[in-house]
Amino acid sequence: MKKVYLDHSATTRMDKRVFDAMMPYFRERFGNASSVHGFGQDAAKRVERARGQVAGFLKCDPEEVVFTSGATESNNLVLRGVTAALGKNGLEDMHVITSRIEHDSMLEPASELERRGIEVTYVDVRPNGVVDPKSVKRTIRETTVLVSIMYVNNEVGSIQPIKEIGHLINEENARRAGGAGRGRIYFHTDATQAVNFLDCNVGLNRVDLLSLSGHKIYGPKGVGALYVREGTVLAAQQLGGHHEKNRRSGTLNVPGIVGLGAAIGLLDPETVEKNVIQIAAVRDLLVEGILGSIPDVTLNTDRQVSTPAHAHFSFAGVDGESILIGLDMEGIAVSTGSACASMSDEPAPALLAMGIDPALARNSIRFTLGKNNTEAEIVRVLEVLPPIVKRLREISPAYRT
Ligand code: PMP
Predict the structure, then answer these.
(1) Where in the sequence is the domain holding 351, given as residue range(s)?
(2) Residues 385, 174: Cα–Cα separation, whole Å
(3) Residue 200 appears among annotated catalytic residues
(4) Do 42 and 165 belong together in one domain?
Protein backbone atom coordinates (compact mmCIF):
# COMPACT_ATOMS: atom_id res chain seq x y z
CA MET A 1 0.00 0.00 0.00
CA LYS A 2 1.45 3.35 -1.04
CA LYS A 3 1.33 5.79 1.85
CA VAL A 4 -0.07 9.28 1.46
CA TYR A 5 1.22 12.00 3.77
CA LEU A 6 -1.11 14.94 4.30
CA ASP A 7 0.16 16.31 7.62
CA HIS A 8 2.78 18.83 6.55
CA SER A 9 1.90 21.27 9.31
CA ALA A 10 3.10 18.66 11.80
CA THR A 11 6.34 18.04 9.98
CA THR A 12 7.80 17.59 6.51
CA ARG A 13 10.01 15.01 4.87
CA MET A 14 13.54 16.31 4.61
CA ASP A 15 14.57 17.41 1.12
CA LYS A 16 17.38 15.22 -0.22
CA ARG A 17 19.51 18.30 -0.92
CA VAL A 18 19.22 19.33 2.73
CA PHE A 19 20.14 15.83 3.87
CA ASP A 20 23.19 15.81 1.59
CA ALA A 21 24.34 19.19 2.91
CA MET A 22 24.10 17.97 6.51
CA MET A 23 25.82 14.61 6.16
CA PRO A 24 29.50 15.66 6.36
CA TYR A 25 28.83 17.52 9.62
CA PHE A 26 27.92 14.37 11.53
CA ARG A 27 31.20 12.50 10.98
CA GLU A 28 33.98 13.97 8.87
CA ARG A 29 33.51 17.60 9.90
CA PHE A 30 32.34 17.10 13.46
CA GLY A 31 34.06 20.03 15.17
CA ASN A 32 32.54 22.14 17.92
CA ALA A 33 31.89 25.56 16.40
CA SER A 34 33.28 27.20 19.56
CA SER A 35 36.66 25.45 19.39
CA VAL A 36 39.71 27.39 18.37
CA HIS A 37 41.41 24.63 16.36
CA GLY A 38 40.85 23.81 12.71
CA PHE A 39 38.01 21.34 13.31
CA GLY A 40 36.14 24.01 15.26
CA GLN A 41 36.82 26.76 12.79
CA ASP A 42 35.64 24.58 9.91
CA ALA A 43 32.30 24.07 11.71
CA ALA A 44 32.10 27.74 12.72
CA LYS A 45 32.60 28.86 9.13
CA ARG A 46 29.82 26.60 7.92
CA VAL A 47 27.50 27.82 10.68
CA GLU A 48 28.15 31.39 9.56
CA ARG A 49 27.28 30.42 6.00
CA ALA A 50 23.98 28.99 7.24
CA ARG A 51 23.36 32.14 9.28
CA GLY A 52 23.89 34.10 6.08
CA GLN A 53 21.35 31.90 4.28
CA VAL A 54 18.73 32.57 6.98
CA ALA A 55 19.56 36.28 6.99
CA GLY A 56 19.30 36.37 3.20
CA PHE A 57 15.80 34.99 3.41
CA LEU A 58 14.71 37.37 6.19
CA LYS A 59 16.61 40.29 4.60
CA CYS A 60 18.37 41.07 7.85
CA ASP A 61 21.90 41.27 9.19
CA PRO A 62 23.35 37.80 9.97
CA GLU A 63 24.18 39.05 13.48
CA GLU A 64 20.44 39.34 14.12
CA VAL A 65 19.88 35.58 13.66
CA VAL A 66 19.98 33.40 16.80
CA PHE A 67 19.92 29.63 16.31
CA THR A 68 17.64 27.73 18.69
CA SER A 69 16.22 24.23 19.03
CA GLY A 70 13.05 25.16 17.14
CA ALA A 71 10.09 27.49 17.14
CA THR A 72 8.92 26.39 20.59
CA GLU A 73 12.17 27.62 22.09
CA SER A 74 12.16 30.77 19.96
CA ASN A 75 8.64 31.64 21.10
CA ASN A 76 9.44 30.95 24.76
CA LEU A 77 12.61 33.02 24.48
CA VAL A 78 10.66 35.99 23.13
CA LEU A 79 7.97 36.08 25.79
CA ARG A 80 10.24 35.35 28.72
CA GLY A 81 13.36 37.08 27.39
CA VAL A 82 11.83 40.44 26.42
CA THR A 83 9.78 40.78 29.62
CA ALA A 84 12.72 39.64 31.79
CA ALA A 85 15.05 42.19 30.18
CA LEU A 86 12.53 45.01 30.67
CA GLY A 87 11.94 43.85 34.26
CA LYS A 88 15.69 44.03 34.90
CA ASN A 89 15.63 47.56 33.50
CA GLY A 90 13.17 48.42 36.26
CA LEU A 91 9.89 48.28 34.36
CA GLU A 92 7.09 47.04 36.59
CA ASP A 93 3.74 47.38 34.80
CA MET A 94 3.89 45.41 31.62
CA HIS A 95 1.16 44.53 29.16
CA VAL A 96 1.53 42.00 26.37
CA ILE A 97 -0.82 41.47 23.41
CA THR A 98 -1.18 38.21 21.57
CA SER A 99 -4.07 36.38 19.89
CA ARG A 100 -6.42 33.55 20.75
CA ILE A 101 -5.20 31.48 17.81
CA GLU A 102 -1.52 31.19 18.71
CA HIS A 103 0.35 27.91 19.01
CA ASP A 104 0.65 26.41 22.50
CA SER A 105 4.31 27.41 22.56
CA MET A 106 3.04 31.01 22.78
CA LEU A 107 -0.13 30.48 24.80
CA GLU A 108 1.54 28.53 27.60
CA PRO A 109 4.41 30.95 28.25
CA ALA A 110 1.84 33.77 27.95
CA SER A 111 -0.18 32.29 30.79
CA GLU A 112 3.01 31.89 32.79
CA LEU A 113 3.58 35.64 32.34
CA GLU A 114 0.08 36.25 33.68
CA ARG A 115 0.86 34.18 36.76
CA ARG A 116 3.86 36.44 37.28
CA GLY A 117 1.65 39.52 37.25
CA ILE A 118 2.12 40.65 33.64
CA GLU A 119 -1.14 41.52 31.94
CA VAL A 120 -1.85 39.68 28.71
CA THR A 121 -4.64 40.48 26.24
CA TYR A 122 -5.67 37.81 23.74
CA VAL A 123 -7.22 39.47 20.71
CA ASP A 124 -10.06 37.73 18.89
CA VAL A 125 -10.20 36.67 15.28
CA ARG A 126 -12.85 37.06 12.63
CA PRO A 127 -14.77 33.88 11.64
CA ASN A 128 -12.24 33.37 8.81
CA GLY A 129 -9.44 33.00 11.37
CA VAL A 130 -7.83 36.38 10.74
CA VAL A 131 -6.96 38.96 13.40
CA ASP A 132 -8.30 42.44 12.72
CA PRO A 133 -5.41 44.95 12.99
CA LYS A 134 -7.92 47.44 14.43
CA SER A 135 -8.52 45.17 17.39
CA VAL A 136 -4.76 45.08 18.02
CA LYS A 137 -4.69 48.86 17.81
CA ARG A 138 -7.62 49.23 20.22
CA THR A 139 -5.90 46.97 22.73
CA ILE A 140 -2.63 48.90 22.91
CA ARG A 141 -2.11 50.71 26.22
CA GLU A 142 0.63 52.92 27.55
CA THR A 143 2.00 49.87 29.37
CA THR A 144 2.11 47.63 26.27
CA VAL A 145 5.65 46.36 25.70
CA LEU A 146 5.23 43.42 23.34
CA VAL A 147 2.80 42.35 20.63
CA SER A 148 3.02 38.81 19.27
CA ILE A 149 0.78 37.69 16.43
CA MET A 150 1.53 34.56 14.42
CA TYR A 151 2.01 34.89 10.65
CA VAL A 152 0.02 31.78 9.67
CA ASN A 153 -2.25 29.75 11.91
CA ASN A 154 -1.27 26.09 12.12
CA GLU A 155 -4.82 24.72 12.33
CA VAL A 156 -6.69 26.37 9.46
CA GLY A 157 -3.86 28.14 7.63
CA SER A 158 -5.20 31.69 7.92
CA ILE A 159 -2.65 34.39 7.07
CA GLN A 160 -2.44 37.26 9.54
CA PRO A 161 -1.99 40.91 8.47
CA ILE A 162 1.54 41.11 9.85
CA LYS A 163 2.59 44.06 7.73
CA GLU A 164 -0.40 46.17 8.80
CA ILE A 165 0.15 45.31 12.44
CA GLY A 166 3.88 46.03 12.10
CA HIS A 167 3.11 49.43 10.64
CA LEU A 168 0.58 50.39 13.26
CA ILE A 169 3.02 49.45 16.02
CA ASN A 170 5.63 51.51 14.26
CA GLU A 171 3.28 54.51 14.30
CA GLU A 172 2.60 53.98 17.99
CA ASN A 173 6.35 53.82 18.63
CA ALA A 174 6.87 57.05 16.71
CA ARG A 175 4.18 58.68 18.85
CA ARG A 176 5.83 57.41 22.02
CA ALA A 177 9.25 58.60 20.97
CA GLY A 178 7.92 62.15 21.14
CA GLY A 179 6.29 61.64 24.55
CA ALA A 180 7.27 60.92 28.12
CA GLY A 181 9.26 58.02 29.38
CA ARG A 182 7.71 54.80 28.13
CA GLY A 183 9.85 52.60 25.93
CA ARG A 184 8.82 51.13 22.64
CA ILE A 185 6.60 48.19 21.78
CA TYR A 186 8.38 45.16 20.33
CA PHE A 187 6.60 43.18 17.63
CA HIS A 188 7.08 39.43 17.32
CA THR A 189 5.64 37.00 14.81
CA ASP A 190 5.71 33.22 14.90
CA ALA A 191 6.36 32.56 11.21
CA THR A 192 6.74 28.78 11.56
CA GLN A 193 3.91 27.99 9.13
CA ALA A 194 4.58 30.95 6.85
CA VAL A 195 8.16 30.45 5.69
CA ASN A 196 7.28 28.01 2.90
CA PHE A 197 4.88 30.44 1.26
CA LEU A 198 5.13 34.07 2.36
CA ASP A 199 7.45 37.01 2.27
CA CYS A 200 9.28 37.09 5.59
CA ASN A 201 11.20 40.29 4.91
CA VAL A 202 11.53 41.67 8.44
CA GLY A 203 12.09 45.23 7.25
CA LEU A 204 9.00 45.41 5.04
CA ASN A 205 6.89 43.69 7.67
CA ARG A 206 8.40 45.79 10.44
CA VAL A 207 8.85 42.95 12.87
CA ASP A 208 11.44 43.02 15.65
CA LEU A 209 11.42 39.30 16.40
CA LEU A 210 10.50 36.32 14.22
CA SER A 211 10.42 32.59 15.03
CA LEU A 212 10.93 29.80 12.52
CA SER A 213 11.58 26.08 12.55
CA GLY A 214 13.63 23.70 10.38
CA HIS A 215 11.36 20.70 10.21
CA LYS A 216 8.37 22.56 8.76
CA ILE A 217 10.39 23.55 5.70
CA TYR A 218 11.80 20.19 4.57
CA GLY A 219 14.72 20.59 6.96
CA PRO A 220 15.77 18.86 10.18
CA LYS A 221 13.90 18.62 13.47
CA GLY A 222 15.28 20.17 16.64
CA VAL A 223 16.63 23.32 15.04
CA GLY A 224 15.13 26.72 14.46
CA ALA A 225 15.95 30.37 14.60
CA LEU A 226 14.88 33.58 16.21
CA TYR A 227 15.40 36.84 14.38
CA VAL A 228 16.21 39.59 16.89
CA ARG A 229 16.35 43.10 15.48
CA GLU A 230 19.42 44.99 16.61
CA GLY A 231 18.59 47.03 19.70
CA THR A 232 15.82 44.69 20.88
CA VAL A 233 16.03 43.90 24.58
CA LEU A 234 16.30 40.18 25.24
CA ALA A 235 17.53 38.42 28.39
CA ALA A 236 18.91 34.96 27.66
CA GLN A 237 16.81 32.21 29.19
CA GLN A 238 19.39 29.50 28.82
CA LEU A 239 22.67 30.32 30.48
CA GLY A 240 26.06 28.73 30.13
CA GLY A 241 28.65 29.05 27.43
CA HIS A 242 27.67 32.50 26.11
CA HIS A 243 26.98 31.14 22.64
CA GLU A 244 25.04 33.10 20.06
CA LYS A 245 26.42 36.38 21.44
CA ASN A 246 25.01 35.67 24.90
CA ARG A 247 21.49 35.26 23.60
CA ARG A 248 21.28 31.46 23.72
CA SER A 249 23.85 29.21 25.36
CA GLY A 250 24.49 25.66 24.24
CA THR A 251 26.91 23.96 21.84
CA LEU A 252 25.67 24.71 18.37
CA ASN A 253 23.79 21.95 16.55
CA VAL A 254 26.07 22.21 13.54
CA PRO A 255 24.44 19.59 11.25
CA GLY A 256 21.00 20.95 12.16
CA ILE A 257 22.02 24.54 11.50
CA VAL A 258 23.60 23.53 8.17
CA GLY A 259 20.30 21.80 7.34
CA LEU A 260 18.21 24.81 8.34
CA GLY A 261 20.35 27.06 6.15
CA ALA A 262 20.11 24.65 3.22
CA ALA A 263 16.32 24.31 3.62
CA ILE A 264 15.78 28.05 3.71
CA GLY A 265 18.23 28.45 0.82
CA LEU A 266 15.88 26.38 -1.35
CA LEU A 267 13.11 28.93 -0.87
CA ASP A 268 13.99 31.39 -3.61
CA PRO A 269 11.03 33.45 -4.92
CA GLU A 270 10.62 31.41 -8.14
CA THR A 271 10.55 28.10 -6.27
CA VAL A 272 8.10 29.46 -3.72
CA GLU A 273 5.81 30.67 -6.49
CA LYS A 274 5.99 27.32 -8.26
CA ASN A 275 5.24 25.46 -4.99
CA VAL A 276 2.32 27.75 -4.20
CA ILE A 277 0.69 27.14 -7.59
CA GLN A 278 1.25 23.41 -7.50
CA ILE A 279 0.17 22.85 -3.90
CA ALA A 280 -2.91 25.06 -4.31
CA ALA A 281 -4.00 23.03 -7.36
CA VAL A 282 -3.69 19.75 -5.48
CA ARG A 283 -5.38 21.21 -2.38
CA ASP A 284 -8.28 22.56 -4.46
CA LEU A 285 -8.79 19.13 -5.99
CA LEU A 286 -9.07 17.72 -2.49
CA VAL A 287 -11.42 20.45 -1.31
CA GLU A 288 -13.76 20.27 -4.30
CA GLY A 289 -13.69 16.49 -4.15
CA ILE A 290 -14.67 16.34 -0.49
CA LEU A 291 -17.33 19.05 -0.74
CA GLY A 292 -18.76 17.34 -3.82
CA SER A 293 -18.89 13.80 -2.47
CA ILE A 294 -19.66 14.02 1.25
CA PRO A 295 -22.79 15.71 2.68
CA ASP A 296 -22.79 17.88 5.82
CA VAL A 297 -19.19 18.95 5.59
CA THR A 298 -17.88 22.39 6.52
CA LEU A 299 -14.64 23.77 5.13
CA ASN A 300 -13.12 25.79 7.97
CA THR A 301 -10.22 27.07 5.89
CA ASP A 302 -11.10 30.23 3.99
CA ARG A 303 -8.96 29.74 0.91
CA GLN A 304 -9.01 33.46 0.11
CA VAL A 305 -7.01 34.26 3.23
CA SER A 306 -4.95 31.10 3.74
CA THR A 307 -1.78 29.41 2.58
CA PRO A 308 -2.22 26.75 -0.12
CA ALA A 309 -1.22 24.01 2.33
CA HIS A 310 -4.32 23.91 4.50
CA ALA A 311 -7.74 22.31 4.13
CA HIS A 312 -9.47 22.01 7.49
CA PHE A 313 -12.90 20.34 7.55
CA SER A 314 -15.63 19.43 10.03
CA PHE A 315 -17.64 16.29 9.23
CA ALA A 316 -20.92 16.63 11.18
CA GLY A 317 -21.70 13.82 13.58
CA VAL A 318 -18.37 11.96 13.48
CA ASP A 319 -15.38 12.22 15.70
CA GLY A 320 -12.29 13.55 13.91
CA GLU A 321 -10.23 10.93 15.71
CA SER A 322 -12.29 8.09 14.20
CA ILE A 323 -11.81 9.45 10.68
CA LEU A 324 -8.08 9.86 11.34
CA ILE A 325 -7.82 6.21 12.40
CA GLY A 326 -9.90 5.05 9.43
CA LEU A 327 -7.63 6.93 7.04
CA ASP A 328 -4.49 5.74 8.82
CA MET A 329 -5.58 2.15 8.29
CA GLU A 330 -5.56 2.96 4.58
CA GLY A 331 -2.06 4.47 4.85
CA ILE A 332 -3.27 8.07 4.66
CA ALA A 333 -1.84 10.42 7.31
CA VAL A 334 -3.89 13.44 8.44
CA SER A 335 -4.46 15.05 11.81
CA THR A 336 -7.28 16.27 13.99
CA GLY A 337 -5.30 19.39 14.73
CA SER A 338 -1.87 20.36 15.80
CA ALA A 339 0.24 17.36 16.77
CA CYS A 340 1.23 19.06 20.01
CA ALA A 341 -2.39 19.31 21.13
CA SER A 342 -3.46 15.95 19.75
CA MET A 343 -3.08 14.24 23.12
CA SER A 344 -5.82 16.41 24.55
CA ASP A 345 -9.55 15.96 24.07
CA GLU A 346 -10.20 19.66 23.90
CA PRO A 347 -10.83 21.25 20.51
CA ALA A 348 -8.07 23.63 19.42
CA PRO A 349 -8.57 27.12 20.92
CA ALA A 350 -8.13 28.59 17.43
CA LEU A 351 -11.29 26.83 16.20
CA LEU A 352 -13.32 28.04 19.16
CA ALA A 353 -11.94 31.55 18.64
CA MET A 354 -13.27 31.39 15.07
CA GLY A 355 -16.72 30.73 16.52
CA ILE A 356 -16.89 27.08 15.47
CA ASP A 357 -19.30 25.12 17.63
CA PRO A 358 -17.27 22.97 20.09
CA ALA A 359 -19.08 19.78 19.01
CA LEU A 360 -18.34 20.50 15.35
CA ALA A 361 -14.74 21.40 16.24
CA ARG A 362 -14.34 17.84 17.57
CA ASN A 363 -15.51 16.56 14.18
CA SER A 364 -12.50 18.11 12.50
CA ILE A 365 -9.79 16.81 10.25
CA ARG A 366 -6.85 18.90 9.13
CA PHE A 367 -5.27 18.10 5.78
CA THR A 368 -2.00 19.93 5.18
CA LEU A 369 -0.35 19.52 1.83
CA GLY A 370 3.24 19.77 0.76
CA LYS A 371 5.39 20.17 -2.31
CA ASN A 372 5.54 16.44 -3.04
CA ASN A 373 1.83 15.63 -2.96
CA THR A 374 0.29 14.58 -6.27
CA GLU A 375 -3.17 14.61 -7.82
CA ALA A 376 -3.07 10.78 -7.87
CA GLU A 377 -2.76 10.79 -4.08
CA ILE A 378 -5.83 12.99 -3.80
CA VAL A 379 -7.78 10.66 -6.09
CA ARG A 380 -6.93 7.88 -3.64
CA VAL A 381 -8.12 9.95 -0.64
CA LEU A 382 -11.35 10.70 -2.46
CA GLU A 383 -11.95 6.98 -3.00
CA VAL A 384 -11.29 6.07 0.61
CA LEU A 385 -12.72 8.95 2.65
CA PRO A 386 -16.43 9.05 1.65
CA PRO A 387 -17.10 5.41 2.63
CA ILE A 388 -15.25 5.92 5.93
CA VAL A 389 -17.40 8.92 6.83
CA LYS A 390 -20.56 7.12 5.69
CA ARG A 391 -19.76 4.05 7.78
CA LEU A 392 -18.98 6.13 10.87
CA ARG A 393 -22.17 8.12 10.47
CA GLU A 394 -24.26 4.97 10.27
CA ILE A 395 -23.15 4.04 13.77
CA SER A 396 -23.07 7.56 15.17
CA PRO A 397 -25.92 8.57 17.46
CA ALA A 398 -24.81 12.17 16.98
CA TYR A 399 -25.54 12.10 13.25
CA ARG A 400 -29.10 12.59 12.05
CA THR A 401 -29.89 13.23 8.42
N1 PMP B 1 4.52 27.54 16.10
C2 PMP B 1 3.72 27.02 15.18
C3 PMP B 1 2.73 27.89 14.48
C4 PMP B 1 3.81 25.65 14.86
O5 PMP B 1 3.01 25.13 13.94
C6 PMP B 1 4.76 24.85 15.54
C7 PMP B 1 4.91 23.38 15.24
N8 PMP B 1 3.76 22.63 15.43
C9 PMP B 1 5.59 25.46 16.50
C10 PMP B 1 5.44 26.81 16.75
C11 PMP B 1 6.62 24.68 17.25
O12 PMP B 1 7.71 24.43 16.44
P13 PMP B 1 8.85 23.38 16.84
O14 PMP B 1 8.29 22.04 16.49
O15 PMP B 1 10.00 23.76 15.99
O16 PMP B 1 9.13 23.53 18.29
Answers:
(1) 4-12+268-394
(2) 54
(3) no
(4) yes
